[in-house]
Amino acid sequence: MLNWLGRTSWYRLLARVPLIRSPGTAGRLQRKLRLLGCACWQSANHGLPLRPGEPMEVVSRFADGQASLAELSAARRAVVVEIGRYTSGVLPLDLHIAAVVTERTLDSQALGEALRSPFWRLGWRNGPTPCDLLRELFGNPFRPVAIDPGVLTWNNGTVPQLAEVIYQENRFSELPILADALEEAGCCCPELLDHCRSTGNHVRGCWAIDLLRGQK
Question: Do residues 134 and 13 lie in contact, with contact meaning Cβ atoms separated by under 8 Å?
Fold first, then answer.
């Protein structure tokens, strides 16, 4: 079995995620890959936020069905213009990522090639690595976590409502509050509670938030 928690080769991890081999998951995988690309872009830029209207912010919204294909195409054109300013033939890591995730169709191989660009080692010096972010988005697919429906309906749906606010407003610092609400609702899943209370980097597409939001 793949050593999911111990491996440091993100590309090998992603290539073996069961989700990729399962029928009917193409749309879900596209969403996760785009959000992974956005998170890697931010990491390569030392946590730079996604600014409204800029290419990577459009990609993030497109992943969730909140931006149109026309908007994605416009973002792609903006990235191409930026690429045209480089004449050395070697693109910075963040621009290489942007060039891939603004494509109409994205696959893990293309993203893997972007993240293996010449500057990738420098890109992760001060932020989470692709392996860190991959685990953040996919959790451990070899030990999937299930949630008791009673937890989701507790107190008029407090738990999924909190998860939705955290996701939509990027308030991931409030995940420990969500963990407290989970416990009050009767959740005793250590993987879920520990993840919500972990001090690691949490991003859009976080497996725990997606689970509580009912995101497929």
Answer: yes
Token couple for 171: 């308030």
pTM of structure: 0.87
Q: Tell me, what DSSP letter sits at residue 112?
A: H
Give the chain's radius of gyration (CA, Å).
Answer: 18
Give yes or no for a contact between 203 and 136, defined as CB atoms under 8 angstroms apart: yes
Rounded to whole angstroms, the Cα distance separating 77 from 86 reads 15
Using one digit for the tens of pLDDT, what is the confidence trace for 127-161? Answer: 787 888 888 998 887 788 999 999 999 999 999 99
Q: Where are the domains of the chain?
A: 10-137, 149-213
From CA 56, how far away is CA 143, in angstroms rounded?
31
Outline where DSSP puts E strands in 33-105.
Answer: none
